[in-house]
Amino acid sequence: MPSETHTFILLQTAFASDIGKTQANLRHTAQRRRSICRLKAKMINCRLPFSDGLGFGFQVQH
User: What's the domain of life for this entry (predicted)?
Assistant: First the structure.
């Protein structure tokens, strides 16, 4: 699992590379950012007690 700092650097790089592109690319970037937020929510949830993580897993799958 990459460290928080490494993930942040990747996000900064992805954001910087999108500057000056078309609106379609900006929309794509927003979608990618939302999916990253969902992924981070999952990662944070993995640190919670098992029962909470299990409930979260069921919510995601359905």
Answer: Bacteria
